[in-house]
Amino acid sequence: MRNGRKSLSVTLGALAICATVLSTAPQLAHADSDSLLLMYVDGKKTEWSAVERDGAAYVSFDTIRKLGGTVEPIQNGSQYSVKQGQNEVRFTAGQSTVSYGGFSERSELSTITADGSTLVPLEWVDELLGVRFLNDPLTGSVFVFRMDAGSRPIEVTVREPSPQPAPKPQTSIRVPVPSIPAAVSPLPAADSAHEETVGVEIVSKTWPVGGGSSHPVKLSDALPSLAAVTLAEDVLTIATTGAVTPQTFQLTSPNRLVIDLPEASVEPAADGTAEGSIAVAPDHPYISNIRYSLFNVEPSTVRIVIDLKRPIAHALESTDEGRKAIVRFDNKPFQVMIDAGHGGHDPGAISATGRYEKDVNLAVATKVQALLEKEDMIEPVMLRSGDGYTSPAERAEAANRTGVDLFVSIHANTAASASVRGTETYYWNDNSYRLAAIMHGNIVEAAQTADRKVKRERFVVIRETTMPSVLLELGFLTNIEDERRLFDEAVQQRIAEAIVESIKEYYNLQT
Ligand SMILES: [Zn+2]
Prior knowledge:
Blueprint: E1 35-41, E2 44-53, E3 56-60, H1 61-66, E4 70-74, E5 79-84, E6 87-91, E7 97-100, E8 103-106, E9 112-114, E10 117-121, H2 122-125, E11 131-136, E12 141-146, H3 147-150, E13 200-201, E14 226-232, E15 235-240, E16 247-251, E17 256-262, E18 275-280, E19 287-296, E20 301-308, E21 313-319, E22 324-330, E23 334-340, H4 357-372, E24 378-382, H5 392-402, E25 406-413, E26 423-427, H6 433-447, E27 451-456, H7 460-463, E28 469-476, H8 480-486, H9 489-506
Parallel strand pairs: 1-12, 23-24, 23-25, 25-28, 26-27
Antiparallel strand pairs: 1-2, 2-3, 3-10, 4-5, 5-6, 6-7, 7-8, 9-10, 11-12, 13-18, 14-15, 15-22, 16-17, 17-20, 18-19, 19-20, 21-22, 26-28
């Protein structure tokens, strides 16, 4: 379960989409609440489409086939199988459970029906098809990027904001990537010919003036155009030749930060493309890729997409009279509240031999704390470090007030029957399911008792907390074998390691 979608190994390069030879017009009719999204592939408009409902993009079986997948009914037509190469996604029409390579996951979406056609959430099949996509209901478009296109040797192509009309000779400057930046470097000047950066590698070259006659886009000379995109430490600088009003929004699955520059343009390169990317060091802590394109013509809008390895807070400011947009990423550690259940006059469950649950909970919590203190990007916050009592409502309130990013409540279980044993993981809010699924898979492996699955229950500490939160029932203390294991320091250590690994997996932190 823990590997779920990640186990898909997408065959890059297997897709051969040629947008220009497609002539089949979309025939998708849709309900009133739906809207039709035009589909762009690698920045080129196609005649395919998607349907947007409640902010999500859905595609027909026909579009999946055009994107390189096969779709077949299986199980006497009760399920569908989408395949690309060796990879498979299965689902049942109208249901939200989706299976990736044999691992089932609960999705927040399900298939929808529009005028008799079954439509599939694009996010269910994007990895399978080897694409990333960006749903933009504002412009009625969905942008599909083939991942193999993104993995080409990357060069950033920017137009020098020089007033000289004559084309400059092509220049190419590679800035070596220091492994450990010594200090925050000053922001590079927008009109600097060489972008002095830390942590990224940029190739900068001049665009020939007057190129791009084959490009269908008519650019207004009056619009400011993109001059430079530079990443230095935790600061991204976007320079334009005139004032712009940038807008940002964040997307998940996968995590992206999108920066739109309305009323701006990108001048097309000689090959007619008005897009490019910036090389980011592979070991960058949170950014995997930065791309930009002219994605809308009327009104002309430049879009910069920052592919993130994990969610990260950011702040946007505009300087230099609107000619420079600065995005500062807040690369501070994630705060994780570790809640050792019960304490004080509340012993929790009483074990088969008369020992207390509160002691197991604190022993595991303390081991988690020790492990997390060695992590740069995770900061443990202990709800209790000693044997004090705090009510469940006060625990949830403390988590919300502190503003921690995650909440992990550690418990052990009790049952009327001494034969009941095993690990259960509880969540309540939808934003906690992924954490619960990752935690459960890892802890079941570490605790080596029975797998009693991920469950949804209204426990106060996971119902009232606003951040992703889970309640772990590590095992049953009323079972003599589970009790022996949970009081065993070596088992406690393995469980603590599983909890820490799960948090790192949740945040896509390198292990
Ligand atoms: Zn408990």
